[in-house]
Amino acid sequence: MSLDYLIVVLVTISIYAILVVSLNIVVGYAGQPNLAQGAFLGIGAYFAAVLSVRYGWSFWWTIPAAVGAAGVAGFVLGAISLRLREDFLAVTTIGLNFVVVAIFQYVPFFGGAVGVYAIPLPSIGDHQFGNADFLAVGLGMLAVVVGISWYLERTWFGAALLAIKDDETAAAATGIPVAPYKIGAFVLSSALAGLAGALYAPFISAVTPTSFGFSESVVILAMLMFGGLGVIGGAIAGAVVLGALPEVFRFISDYRLLAFGSILVFMLRFQPQGLFGEHSAVLATIGRVVPRRLGRRDAGSGPGRGPASDGPA
Amino acid sequence: MALLEIDALVVRFGGLTALDGIDLTVEAGEFVSIIGPNGAGKTTLFNVIAGAQPPSRGQVRFDGRSIRGFGTTRMSYLGVSRTFQVARPFRSLSVRENVRLGAAGRQTLASARTLAPRRRATDMTRRVDELLALTDLERKADHKAAELNIGELRRLELARALAAEPRLLLLDEPAAGIGADGMRPLARLIAGSREHGLTVLLVEHHVGFALSLCDRAVVLDAGRVIADGPPDAVRTDPLVVNAYLGRAASAQAQVARAAAAPGSVAT
Amino acid sequence: MEVFASSAVQGIVQGSLYALIALGPSLTYGLLRILDVANAAGLTLGAYVGLEAYSATGQWWLALIAGAMAGAVLGWLIQRLLYRPILGRGPIVPLIAGIGVFIAAEEAFRLVFGPYNRTFAATLPLPALQVAGTQVTGVETLILLIGVTVFPATWWLLRRTSLGLAWRATSQDRETAQAMGINIGRVIASIFVIGYALAAVGGVLVGVTYNTVYPTMGDIPAYKMLAIIVLGGLGNPLGTILAAMLIGLVETFVVAYFGFVLPRDAIAFIALILILLVRPRGLLPGDEVVQ
Fold first, then answer.
1. Which of A49, A97, A304, B60 is buried most, with the most CB atoms less than 10 Å from its CB?
2. Which chain A residues contact residue C85 at CB under 8 A?
3. What is the pTM of this model?
4. In the structure, do chain C and chain B come into contact, i.e. share 3 or more CB pairs under 8 Å?
């Protein structure tokens, strides 16, 4: 495997990691079902693509545009989520994928079935982006998203999202204004997915409607559930493992999807909280091997494993 | 002006009338127990006061102001805190975090401060620590709420509700699921919380527990108030006994009432 | 006027097919609060097995039976190996697990039966009818016949049999039903067997109607059925039948009168989202316990 190829794979994984860590805000923290993250990726990517190809915007300016567009879409979904109970919301988000893809296919602004292609490479000054530059930006974006998520865990807002996930009724009675918090989670999660979209567009150099359909959203959610709901490290692990899978299994590429589906099923059957979530077998094993730092914590929790454990006071 | 005024409150769910014209006034500082047989409407009444259930008809005024359409969050900002019949802790969070969220209130949760790190909120530390000590949860303060047993969960709910420094505390069957041993410390805890000038409404199925704590007891049956007075009077009121136990027992109660000296115990 | 009549008839046929395929997921949801995407694997399996049976024997009714049996077996396996062990983990885990199984199943079909479209040219000894001035082909008549049988049969099953009673009890309150002696395991197994068999029969009918069988033929139905059961009011199989007919009619009319302005499959979801905004619990909410 050449270095350049490895870099391309890493860029793909970073894009997925951004998508999974941002999805975690809505699904892992706020506990709302969201099977539409692919649609928000698509909205960001499409806006970046159109602005870049048709209006000559520089890559750097398409970033806030993509984030904004996806964030607005997230606001709409968040508002809808207030009215719908869990299963209805889950199915609505599934449907959202189909509706968004249909909009991409049929609204002329988005270029129709062909999509938008020949997206120009970004540049800094005279230097045009190579794959290494994409990786640098990708990792930078990932760092930003991880940073935001990490900070969120330590705020009142983050704890309140967990409270809403655990028991919405009690959360409201405890003084948490549930509606704006839910909407806020959706907006943040979607906006950050749009961020990934801004990188995706020039990297793939074309956007087509069918790239952002339901299967894409399922892959992203599967990565999150595989790695561990509510745990940033788990989210990244899910993106890395399942994102690297197509490459690892390249030699039996015909069976890739079969492997993906099977791994997903086995994971959910035996470790439904994910590889690094609660009751994680992996973490328990590590906990037994590595000496514990503090006496009080049990095997499944520890510093940096979620908003519950920010220590005394 | 009374703290809580309820006029002719009616609550209907489709064909079912849960509350059929309730009149109730609660002054600040009172401890009122609301008892009654199953299905009498006690929890529905609580839900209305807490803002979780809109009235079908009638008026509810808190602090002189109508609370129609307010919702539980707004009621909590006005100073109404509640515990739940089935404990509702935030399982993912630690005990301490549960209580801190209770303490956070409007200034933090409904303002930009919600985006500040929690660790910095040292102004709440003392209150939270006091409450953890009061409810004997200090040792478990950093454990996740999911790990607590039922007695600890009830104490956690109480701590979380008190953390908001409420003016009106609604306790929904706090003794449910707790054995006789657990009830005495719980009773002490609840009695102790009154020292802060708190007004308490207690709904409880365990009549003895409820009557031992209150200044005044209100008895509901089939959505109506059938008795409202000092615990001893209510305890032997034939209407009340009848509602719980049926006619034969009611006749017995009348005899007991005639024979009983004031203050004698009969549960 | 002809367009209206033929659209109406086509819509009813399409709706009946949808209803047949959606019944399984609807019953499963009512019972377990699980959105079962894997059910569509039963559809595809039924189509393939039915095709093989028909190719081997030339008997169309054998195709239906073979397909149904294959579906029944798959249903039994899936509930036993996948869903039963993960009950009580909330709704998202079984949903994703079901999607995982579905993806794996589609791949398995591709590897076993090949990725190419196969034709399912079956001649049914059923006359082409003239209904309301429009032609109804043999297989469409069959669909209507099956529909006319299955739907009252479902009502009868739910309202008049002990299985139906057990289903209703378990869907209201699983613990109490168990405490009262209902064998939950058997109820679950029966519902999955029936639901997947129905999907498999639907698969055979789809294969014959469109004269094609391919590994991913279950894709659209998998998710469209979700929209339909939500629309009909989760947990209400009769509402599902109603919603299925509605969607079938709406799709057919939109395509007939507006051409391809909207992709057909987005229509069900657009309808769903619009209706949920007005009635957040679906058209005919079931008796689910409000959480």
1. A49
2. 269
3. 0.86
4. no
